[in-house]
């Protein structure tokens, strides 16, 4: 499993959680998977990775990606079958990575539900250009209904939160508070501001914010882990800092020609 670490604020602000698009990379080669994930994150996407078919199907159902990059040769369920199964209920574009380039193989990919393909070995610039073209073509069907911040995804219409690929159960007020923090990721929100946003005129006790933040942190994995995402700014309030899926060190030189 990829190493997780918390995003650090730098001179260049992170993409807004309301505009980050979600990409699922399904690739059993760990080196290639890391390179693709890192490069896509550098381009402002929120990236999820799977190394085999069943995991890919599970993540596709949970995260609802805006696009899937799918390797054809996978252990367990074949990539073509993964594509066919996902296409039954997900309309997002699927781009297939394949070493097979015969006419019959390509026709079979499109019949399984693929929208485009790239043959291995490939150049990452071409791959990213195809990804961007597919996303432009499909567009963002629900820009205000899904908030994405690193490994955290909030589905407003479904009242659903996914963190690191697993569902998080939150009460309505906790859900609203987390969404308010994620919408303002990176900046400090005062307790009074959060109280006004979530409770309106119903509650005037600022301690209600502290109690609900504690409950959200517990749901995210406990005070230590949740406290890294929802940071306390003493005497002021709270700040949400997204956790990103990135490797500690990956050379930009790895973005040249990639062989599968």
How would you describe this structure to a colleague?
The strands form five sheets. This protein has a five-stranded parallel beta sheet with strand order 3-2-4-5-6, sandwiched between helices. It has a four-stranded antiparallel beta sheet with strand order 8-9-10-11, covered by helices on one side. Strands 12-14-13 form a three-stranded antiparallel beta sheet. Residues 1-15 and 246-260 have low confidence and may be disordered. α3 (79-87) runs parallel beside α4 and α8 packs across α9. The protein is α/β, with parallel strands linked by helices and 260 residues long. The protein is built from nine helices and 16 strands. It has two domains: 18-141, Response regulator (Rossmann fold), CATH 3.40.50.2300; 146-244, Winged helix-like DNA-binding domain superfamily/Winged helix DNA-binding domain (Arc Repressor Mutant, subunit A), CATH 1.10.10. The longest helix has 15 residues, at 124-138. A hairpin with a 2-residue loop joins β8 and β9.
Short characterization:
Helices cover 38% and strands 22% of the residues. It is of the alpha/beta class and 260 residues long.
Keywords summarizing the entry:
Arc Repressor Mutant, subunit A, 260 residues, 5-stranded parallel sheet, 4-stranded antiparallel sheet, disordered C terminus, Rossmann fold
